[in-house]
Amino acid sequence: MNITKQSPAPKPASMRPFFAVWTGQVFSLLGSELVQFALVWWLTTTTGSAVVLVLATMMAVLPRVFVSPIAGALVDRWNRRLVMMLADGLSAVAVVVLAVLFALDAVQVWHVYIVMFVRAACGAFHWPAMQASTTLMVPEQHLARVAGLNQALQGLGSIAAPPLGALLLQVLPMQGVLAVDVVTALLAISPLFFVHIPQPERTEAAAQASRPSVVADLREALRFLRDWPGILMIIAIAVLVNALIFPAMSLQPLLVTEHFGGDVLQLAWLQSAFGVGMVAGGVTLGVWGGFKRRSLTGLLALALTGAGFAVVGLAPADAFPVAVGAMFFAWFMNPIANGALMAVLQVIVPADMQGRVFTLLQSAAGAMIPLGLVIAGPLAEVLGIQIWFLVAGVAMAVMGIGALFVPTITRLDDLAASKSTEAAGIDEAVAVPASAR
After folding, report:
1. Which sign does the torsion angle of CA 32, 93, 130, 58 carry?
2. What's the CA gap between 110 and 173, in Å, rounded?
3. How far is CA 12 from CA 17, 141, 143, 345, in A?
C-alpha cells in the first residue's frame, strides 16, 4: 500500500516548553482529583445511595465512550493549545457554578451529575490534545520516559488526593474545596499563553482534499488502523486489559473482607500498594526509558503485571502480606507496560491523526468497563472473589508473552526506527509494503 509521507515537524531544541506545560497539568490533575474525591464523598454522605454513586460513575465514563471519538477528530483539526486552554477553562467555569450553588445552599444531586459530566467531557478533549502535543514537543528517545512520568503522576494523584481532600473538607466548606480546583486550572492554563505548541503538518493527501466531515475523519482513522494490524493488536490488548483490571480493582473491598477476613485497615494497605507501586513504576520508566525495543518493554511488563495479579488470586487467606506485595509488583509493572506501548503509538501514528486514534482507544477501553463488571460480578459470586484476579492475571500474562511472537507487533519498533530515519533526511513520498505491517 502506498502512503504519502507526512512532512516532519521540526525536532524540539529543548524540553523546557514541554515541562512548563506539564508542570501546570500536574497542578490541574491534583485539583481535579481533589474535587472528584470531595464530590463523591458529598454524594455518599448526603444520599447514602449506591445507585447515586453508580450514576456518578457513569457520568465520568459516558463522555469517555461517546464523546471521545468526536473529540479526537476535532482535536486533529483544531489548534491543540487552544483546545487544552478551553477544556481546562470550561471545566473551571462548571466548578465555579457548582461552588456558587453550594454557597447559596441550593445544590441538588443532579447539579453534581451535570458538573461531573461536563468535566469528563472536557477531559475527553484535553487528554488527546495533550498526548498528541507531547509527540511534537518531546524528542522521540524520551517519549517512553515522559509516558512513565505521566503514569507516576496518576499514581501520585491517587495517593495524595484522598487524604488531602479529607483534610480540606475538615477545614473548608465545599465551595472552598471547589475553589482549589479553579486555582489549579488557572495554573494549568497560564503557561499555555506563553508556550508555543507545534501543530502537525497535514499529509499531502489531506492538504489537497477538500475539508472532510468529522465522520470522514473518523473513517480515515479506522482505515489507518485497518492497514496497521500491529497497532490494532496493541489497542485490542489495551482494551482487554482495561476490561480485566477495572473489575479486579472494584472487587478489592470484597477480597479483603470475604477472603482475607480484614477490615478497612487491610483495604487501605492494599490500595496503598496500588498507588505506591504505580508511582514507583512510572518513575522507574521515566528514569530508565525502557529497552531499546519499546514493544519488548511493554509486553514483558504486561506479562509481569499479569503475574502479580495471579499471585493475588492465589494467595491463601492467611497470606495477606503476600497479596499486598503482589499488588505492589503488579502496579509497579503496569505503568511500565502502559508507558512503553503508548510511546510505540506516539512514534508510529502520524501526528495529524493522533487525536482520533488515541480517543478511539480511550472510547473502546471505556466501553469495556461495564462489560467487564457484568462478567466479573456473577463469576466472583459463583466461584469466589479471588477467581477474577487469577483469570485477569493469567489472561494478561498470556497476552504479553504471546504478543512477543507476533511479528506485526514486534516489527513496529523497526518501522518506528525507519520512520525516524526518513524524517531526519528524506522528504519524498515513500511506499511502505503491506507485508511489513
Report:
1. positive
2. 20
3. 9, 12, 12, 19
* CA nearest to 199, candidates 75, 87, 90, 89: 75
Rounded CA separation 420/12 (Å):
14
pLDDT tens for each residue of 185-221: 899 899 888 888 877 765 544 444 445 677 777 788 7
CA dist 40 and 53 (Å) reads 7
CB 273 within 8 A of CB 159: no
Structural domain boundaries enclosing 341: 215-425
Model confidence pLDDT, tens digit, residues 54-66 = 677 778 777 877 7
In a domain? residue 432:
no
Which pairs from 169-174 meet CB under 8 Å and 24+ separation? Answer: 169/38, 169/41, 173/102, 173/103, 174/38, 174/42, 174/99, 174/102
Three-state secondary structure call for residue 431: strand
221 in any annotated domain:
yes
Q: What is the pLDDT of residue 1?
A: 35
**Type of residue numbered 218:** L
Closest CA to 258 of 172, 437, 167, 383: 383
